[in-house]
Amino acid sequence: MPTKADIKRLAKPIKLKIRRGDKVMIIAGKDKGQVGFVAAVSAKEGKVIVLKDNPDNPEQPLPLNQVIKHRKAKSQGERSARIALPAPLHISNVMVLDPKTGQPSRVGRKKEGDKLVRYAKKSGSVIKVEESK
Length: 133
Prior knowledge:
The chain is mainly beta. The chain has one helix at about 5-10; strands at about 25, 35-40, 45-50, 60-65, 65-70, 80-85, 90, 95, 105, 105-110, 115-120. The protein is flat, with a radius of gyration of 19 Å.
């Protein structure tokens, strides 16, 4: 009888059509229509964290779908603060932007040579992952 570890090893990995670094548009929720990039992907939960570029400070991107957390002062000299944190979005609420047109598009997979590549179904152009962020 196979053990739990054997079953996990034999299980197929979760394949998602959205990867870290993709330019995406939020299509549902309070930030509908906003454009940003994927900072993190959780395949098991099916969620992504989306950030957008900050024109004032390029090294500190702004969170999309942000939530405010209140932090209480722990000592006399410390101040209480309201911290904006990015909340995860479900993968179904974001769409990858077509590299050719900049419009949201569905993603497909096709073989090019011996590699499996992602492509935008709207224009047929291949989606390249940018891992710069």
